[in-house]
Specification:
Distance between the termini: 26 Å
Number of helices: 7
Radius of gyration: 19 Å
Bound molecules: S-adenosylmethionine
Shape: globular
Order of helices and strands: EHEEHHEHEHEHHE
Number of strands: 7
CATH topology: Rossmann fold
Structural class: alpha/beta
Strand content: 25-35%
CATH architecture: 3-Layer(aba) Sandwich
CATH superfamily: Vaccinia Virus protein VP39
Number of domains: 1
């Protein structure tokens, strides 16, 4: 029965979401808000739960924790996912790649420390299954193979191929982790 606000700063993504919500008759429950996550246009203590998958990294996880905490009601929940190192000794090539793509990537312990420091209790946390990575990258790999010949000089294709190579060689050294947090008293 919750009232949901969906935020993105890309209007076309919200438009598409709006169409799907209408198809599924959920549009009366979800309000769309085109806004910057670094400057959300909501009063303090507006939300019982903030849910952010694969996006807090855009403004930096620590900054997101601090800024979004103010928007939570007393003892409200925050669910965030983040790319993390699963080992203290990652391979050189994986480190070099992620230093370029996500320089603030941390171990689980380091993130948990930052979350507690920011005033959250950790209710639960877990790494997404490797199958989730396969579900994402296998269709992407097939699509790259399909279009590559017609786009021989594409930087986007080259970037995706580099990322897929890292996933194929080093998955297990890094993963996507869900953190379920509650605003501390
Ligand atoms: C990697 S996608 C993740 C989307 C979705 N949560 C998921 O798991 O599939 C990141 C999303 O954040 C949006 N985004 C990027 N910068 C933003 C900002 N400053 N404020 C709000 N949304 C932003 C992008 O438009 C994109 O839809």
């Amino acid at each position: 029965q919750a009232e949901i606000v969906a935020v993105d700063n890309e209007q076309s993504a919200l438009d598409e979401l709006g169409e799907r919500l209408t198809e599924q008759r959920l549009d009366t429950r979800v309000t769309l808000s085109c806004a910057n996550m670094t400057d959300l246009p909501f009063p303090p203590e507006s939300f019982d739960c903030i849910w952010s998958e694969g996006s807090a990294y855009i403004m930096g996880v620590e900054q997101a924790l601090t800024q979004w905490r103010k928007l939570l009601t007393n003892r409200g929940y925050m669910v965030v996912s983040d790319l993390i190192w699963l080992t203290d000794n990652p391979s050189q090539e994986a480190v070099a790649f992620w230093e370029g793509e996500y320089p603030d990537m941390q171990t689980i312990e380091k993130r948990l420390g930052q979350m507690r420091q920011a005033g959250f209790e950790v209710i639960d946390h877990f790494t997404l299954r490797e199958q989730a990575w396969h579900d994402y990258y296998q269709p992407l790999k097939a699509r790259v193979a399909e279009v590559k010949a017609s786009m021989p000089n594409s930087n986007a294709i080259a970037d995706i191929e580099r990322e897929i190579a890292i996933y194929e060689r080093y998955l297990g050294e890094f993963g996507y982790h869900m953190f379920v947090l509650r605003k501390g008293a």
